């Protein structure tokens, strides 16, 4: 064992600054080499040295990456890739305790025994290596480094209660993914770190954590090897792992290596367990906290003095045992296993017939099995590479291109991309070997570019799968108690810190429905905190908005544009409804009060404008006695009163009282007492809402479409609905009350006792067919008797009679006579209407014309002369309605037409 310069072993627990010390010592020399356990850590140290000295003097050499500036002075390498025989001034090996690792230990042991710097050699690692290093290297000096912060055990903790800046460690990829999914739902997401990730993917994931985009890290034991992260707590989701051969429990020193990632620098850290992991035994926890571990007694070793004369000689030299009791022979590694497999191939044995060929075969067998598919698959790949190198001296470009192109695809899920990254690492490693392929620089760049593309795609999939960036950003801002910036566009879409979080509908926030459970709760909490200024701005804008921007719905809702901002509720009086606002509690009482005041102003002004005649009636101080009481009923009924409901009160009103009420626009109709101005569509729509509120209806009936004289009466309508809608139900349809009164005026001239038929004006005013009109009349209390009679043909015009028509020939007379024989007559349907109620003589007196007919010796009581089926001179009566068309003569003094004796009084005056 060559020994040159001073040998120092810097030992101690994690977070003691050992690696930082080695970097400082190396930069104090003209040249230096540092070996690190992971490609990821090598890249991290390389970046630090480049930042200190510039890229022109720093080299990076790993199995898959080679950066070699011409004037390189400092070499940062993985332990396996450390160059031999360079004669550098300084040499360091980090994590030297890996000499006891079953898989890679022989490489670290070889560096411990044989690698030296000209002026200084430094080994960094756990204090458990002190005894064995002292035995193997008697001249070594030891430096003990104490941890800069304390590490304490916090027991078991649920994942849902995990504190921010925590790392959850799992040794199963499936379990790791499941934990990351859970953290996304409950905490906004987590960064994922695995040893299989490329440095580019790993750095991007770590950046998510370090930058605070997420507060949690889910990782394998890859974080235990010197990666410096700002972790406050490490939680083990399991304490056993598969070591390539079997499942085994981790040793206390292995747990300590990972737990020590918590509490970097001067910050104290904690560790514990979570999930299904059972709590650590007290002695194990105490050993980790006090950094007391059993000393390493045996180092894994493999003979480094290899013989390349023949394949069998090489295999024998690799399997040669050691005589040193402090060293234990390494188990069969992947490279030796591949060598034995290829040695069984006759073609390979024939090719490896000299030392140069055997050395080449050994170099090919040392290509790592990044893919991890199967041992035979890996051996088959190595056979192809060796065959090309032995036959041609290099790998053909077209063959190499095909291997790379198959992998150069960024579609697929996390597992698919992870496999492609592992595959490209194989070809990246091959491209880094000197002389293995033509145009090495091109292929190194090409494989690196493919790896970068796959790494970026994998990072994107991991972030998409396990990070809810929106929730994590909001959580971070809330934790930092920073003012969140919220924006609301014209569509009501809300973004907080640039992330869509939901919609602001009026003064209520609707969180994005894709966020559920704890995530949705967090999203709403953060969003409402950010929206506080927006609520006030929107309330100010609403308060100053014109009434034209506000409206009410037929169900009593209050709308600001397309947003519901409140609803009407019943007040003490139908014309004084109250307002209930739709405002989130988080908006504050000031916003709610401002919205409530504005809506109350709106509805009060709306009632004042649409119900002005009614309000004037209620405020008329000149009304007194019965008129005042009737006005009160009219206001209470919102301007529409069925006459039958107040018949006695109407009788009690004298002419003066009626005159005063008429001045306010009240019309005393035969069927309804109403205010015509209140029958317009806008007042009717509001009246139905106010009436529904006063009645406490669950669902408000809607107003009929404006402009229709009749509408279907419908079934199940609340009692009083048709009057509030401005209609009166009669039969299967309801007729508008103002048009009904016009019809009533026509009916007064008819003989409702003797019977009458509908004239065209009646059908025209209602817009009904004869059958519909008959149903309407039945609904109004009339009897409708259906009859049929021959349809009367119109007589020929005078012009037609004056035309010259030749007389028929004599021989045509019999035929023409036969044609003139009586044919089946065409029938006409008609209805005769008689009053079917209990008004008796009053209805006849109202008609006036019927009394006149009897006094003049007209038709007697009973059947009307000329009733269908009767004959006058053998011909159908043609003038059945002529004697009933004239109105009563004008009177000198106006008589109240609503007086049931008005017609009789007129007849008396005429007499």
TrEMBL record:
It comes from the Bacteria. The keyword Kinase does not apply. Keywords: ATP-binding, Helicase, Hydrolase, Nucleotide-binding. Residues 841-851 have a biased composition (Polar residues). Residues 797-824 have a biased composition (Low complexity). This is Disulfide oxidoreductase. InterPro entries: DEXQc_SUV3 (IPR055206), Helicase_C-like (IPR001650), P-loop_NTPase (IPR027417), RNA-DNA_Helicase (IPR050699). Pfam families: DEXQc_Suv3, Helicase_C.
């Amino acid at each position: 064992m060559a020994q040159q310069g001073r040998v120092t072993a810097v030992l101690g627990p994690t977070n003691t600054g050992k690696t930082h010390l080695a970097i400082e010592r190396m930069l104090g020399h003209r040249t230096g080499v540092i070996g690190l356990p992971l490609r990821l850590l090598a890249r991290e140290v390389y970046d630090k040295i480049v930042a200190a000295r510039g890229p022109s003097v720093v080299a990076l050499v790993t199995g898959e990456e080679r950066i070699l500036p011409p004037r390189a002075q400092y070499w940062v390498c993985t332990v396996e890739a450390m160059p031999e025989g360079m004669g550098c001034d300084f040499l360091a090996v980090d994590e030297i305790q890996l000499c006891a690792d079953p898989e890679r230990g022989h490489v670290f042991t070889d560096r411990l025994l044989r690698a030296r710097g000209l002026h200084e050699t430094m080994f960094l690692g756990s204090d458990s290596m002190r005894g064995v290093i002292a035995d193997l290297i008697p001249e070594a000096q030891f430096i003990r480094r104490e941890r800069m912060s304390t590490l304490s055990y916090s027991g078991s903790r649920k994942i849902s209660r995990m504190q921010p800046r925590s790392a959850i460690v799992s040794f199963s990829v499936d379990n790791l993914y499941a934990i990351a999914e859970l953290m996304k739902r409950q905490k906004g997401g987590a960064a994922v770190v695995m040893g299989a990730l490329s440095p580019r993917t790993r750095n991007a994931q770590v950046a998510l954590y370090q930058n605070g985009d997420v507060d949690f890290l889910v990782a394998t034991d890859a974080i235990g090897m010197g990666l410096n992260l700002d972790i406050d707590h490490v939680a083990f989701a399991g304490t056993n792992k598969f070591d390539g051969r079997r499942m085994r429990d981790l040793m206390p020193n292995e747990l300590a290596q990972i737990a020590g990632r918590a509490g970097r620098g001067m910050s104290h850290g904690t560790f514990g367990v979570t999930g299904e992991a059972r709590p650590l035994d007290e002695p194990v926890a105490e050993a980790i906290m006090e950094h007391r571990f059993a000393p390493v007694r045996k180092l894994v070793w493999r003979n480094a003095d290899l013989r390349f004369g023949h394949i069998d000689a090489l295999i024998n030299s690799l399997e040669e045992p050691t005589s040193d009791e402090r060293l234990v022979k390494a188990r069969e590694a992947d490279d030796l296993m591949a060598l034995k497999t290829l040695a069984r191939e006759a073609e390979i044995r024939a090719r490896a017939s000299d030392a140069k060929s055997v050395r080449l075969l050994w170099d090919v067998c040392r290509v790592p099995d990044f893919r991890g598919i199967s041992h035979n698959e890996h051996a088959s790949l190595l056979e192809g590479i060796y065959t090309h190198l032995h036959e041609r001296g290099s790998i053909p470009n077209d063959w190499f291109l095909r291997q790379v192109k198959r992998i150069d695809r960024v579609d697929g899920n996390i597992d698919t991309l992870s496999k492609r990254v592992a595959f490209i690492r194989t070809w990246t490693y091959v491209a880094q070997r000197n002389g293995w392929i033509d145009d090495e620089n091109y292929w190194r760049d090409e494989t690196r570019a493919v790896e970068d593309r796959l790494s970026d795609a994998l990072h994107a999939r991991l972030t998409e799968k396990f990070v809810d960036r929106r929730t994590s950003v909001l959580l971070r801002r809330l934790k930092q108690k920073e003012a969140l910036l919220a924006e609301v566009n014209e569509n009501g879409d809300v973004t907080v810190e640039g992330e869509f979080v939901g919609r602001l509908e009026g003064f209520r926030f609707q969180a994005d429905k894709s966020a559920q459970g704890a995530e949705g709760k967090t999203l709403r909490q953060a969003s409402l905190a950010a929206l506080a200024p927006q609520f006030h701005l929107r309330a100010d804008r609403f308060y100053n908005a014109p009434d034209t921007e506000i409206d009410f719905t037929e169900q009593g809702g209050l709308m600001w544009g397309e947003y519901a901002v409140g609803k009407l509720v019943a007040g003490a009086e139908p014309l004084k409804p109250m307002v209930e606002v739709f405002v989130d509690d988080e908006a504050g009482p000031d916003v709610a009060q401002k919205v409530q005041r504005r809506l109350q102003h709106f509805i009060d002004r709306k009632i004042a404008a649409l119900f002005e005649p009614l309000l004037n009636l209620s405020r008329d101080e000149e009304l007194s006695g019965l008129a005042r009481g009737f006005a009160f009923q009219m206001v209470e009924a919102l301007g529409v009163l069925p006459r039958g409901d107040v018949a006695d009160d109407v009788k009690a009103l004298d002419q003066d009282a009626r005159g005063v009420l008429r001045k306010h626009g009240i019309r005393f109709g035969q069927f309804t007492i109403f205010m015509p101005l209140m029958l317009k569509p806008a007042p009717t729509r509001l009246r139905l809402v106010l009436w529904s509120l006063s009645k406490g209806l669950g669902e408000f009936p809607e107003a009929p479409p404006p402009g229709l004289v009749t509408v279907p009466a419908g079934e199940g309508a609340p009692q009083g609905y048709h009057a509030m809608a401005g209609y009166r139900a009669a039969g299967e349809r309801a007729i508008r009350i103002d048009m009904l009164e016009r019809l009533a005026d026509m009916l007064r001239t008819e003989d409702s006792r003797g019977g009458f038929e509908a004239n065209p004006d009646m059908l025209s005013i209602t817009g009904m067919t004869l059958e519909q009109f008959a149903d309407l009349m039945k609904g109004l209390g009339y009897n409708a008797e259906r009859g049929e009679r021959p349809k009367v043909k119109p007589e020929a015009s005078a012009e037609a009679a004056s035309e010259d028509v030749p007389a028929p020939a004599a021989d045509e007379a019999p035929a023409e006579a036969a044609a003139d024989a009586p044919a089946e007559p065409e029938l006409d349907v008609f209805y005769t209407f008689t009053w079917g109620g209990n008004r008796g003589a009053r209805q006849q007196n109202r008609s006036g014309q019927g009394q006149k007919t009897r006094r003049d010796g007209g038709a007697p009581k009973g059947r009307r002369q000329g009733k269908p089926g009767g004959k006058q001179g053998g011909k159908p009566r043609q003038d059945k309605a002529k004697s009933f068309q004239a109105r009563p003569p004008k009177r000198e003094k106006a008589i109240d037409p609503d007086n049931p004796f008005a017609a009789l009084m007129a007849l008396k005056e005429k007499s």
